[in-house]
Structures are given as C-alpha cells and as structure tokens.
Amino acid sequence: MSAAVYGIGNILMGDDGIGPAVARFLADRWTFDDDVVIEDLGTPSLDLPGYLIGHDLVVLVDAVASDGQPGALRIYRGDEIVAVPPGIRISPHEPSVNDALAVLAFADKTPADVVLVGVVPETLDGGVQLSPAVADAVTAAADAVVHELADHGHKAIRK
C-alpha cells in the first residue's frame, strides 16, 4: 500500500504557501516508510490527477476557504471533497481537488482514501512569508498528516 503527501500552494501568495511549508517540515523532521512520498507540488492545476494515480492513500495539505480563525485546521475526506460543487474557476489551483477526483473516478483510478488537511489562511496577498497564525499551524498540520499515515499503517519516525 503506497501513500503520498502533497503540499499544494503558491509560496509567493502569503498563507497559500502552507502546503509547501508543511511538506518541507515533514521532509526535514520525519523519516517515512519507503512507500510514502512527500512532495511540494506547488500549484499543479491540470497535472494534479496524475499525481494521485497509483496511491492507496493521498494526503493533501493546502490553505482552505473556511470559517474559523487563521491557522485553524480543517480535515476533509474524499466524500466531503467531491460533495463541494464546482464553482467559477479563478485561482491558480484550477481545476480544484474535487475536479481532479471526478476525473479519476471517471477513469476508475481514484485512490482508496483521500484526505485534505486544510489550514484557514489569514492572507493570500503577495509575499513569501506565512502570517504568524498560519506559521504556528505548520506543526499541527504536520502532526495531522503523520496521524493519517499512521491510521493507514505507515510508520513515521521523528528525526
């Protein structure tokens, strides 16, 4: 059983860089089984479905539009992700994660489990720094990823 953890986001757009920050944090501070891939995908757009194929578990980390204080975690599972109706596409993340899952479902290539570890952003304005609240959430988001991996039988060892 293979797993992939993908940080998604634009590091030049403030808190949108949370996904790549968590991917770096995990790679720097944890060692994973050989069947676990940790990668910063940036803003994969049309390439996203290709990254999801071939894994039993995919954990995505990204900034999410959700109610709550900046830095709050939101965990979404596959059914919750695809339940969100597609809207007008105006961001560099297009198509969205739920669009990518719809494409994979059509091709009968959907991973068994997909989890989105979302972090509520404070700002998506230009800049290479995370806001203090979102920067403080990096450890909690990484812990949520490690927990998801462990729940699926993947070991993670702190370096």
Provide the spatial order of strands within the biggest beta sheet.
3-1-4-6-5
Distance between the termini: 23 Å
What's the number of extended β-strand segments?
7
Tell me the radius of gyration: 15 Å
- Provide the number of structural domains: 1
Please outline the major beta sheet.
5 strands, mixed
What do we call the CATH homologous superfamily? Answer: HybD-like
What are the low-pLDDT stretches, counting only 5+ consecutive residues below 50?
Answer: 88-92
CATH topology, anyone? Rossmann fold
How would you describe what is shown here?
With 159 residues, this protein is α/β, with parallel strands linked by helices. The chain has a single domain, classed as 3-Layer(aba) Sandwich (Rossmann fold). The chain is built from six helices and seven strands. The strands form two sheets. It has a five-stranded mixed beta sheet with strand order 3-1-4-6-5. The protein has a two-stranded antiparallel ribbon with strand order 2-7. The longest helix has 14 residues, at 138-151. Mean pLDDT is 89; it is low at 88-92.
Please name the defining characteristics of this protein.
single chain, five-stranded mixed beta sheet, 159 residues, Rossmann fold, alpha/beta
What topology emerges from the helices and strands here?
Elements: E1 3-8, H1 18-29, E2 30-32, E3 36-42, H2 48-52, E4 57-63, E5 73-77, H3 78-82, H4 97-106, E6 113-119, H5 132-136, H6 138-151, E7 156-158
Parallel strand pairs: 1-3, 1-4, 4-6
Antiparallel strand pairs: 2-7, 5-6
Helix pairs in contact: 1-6
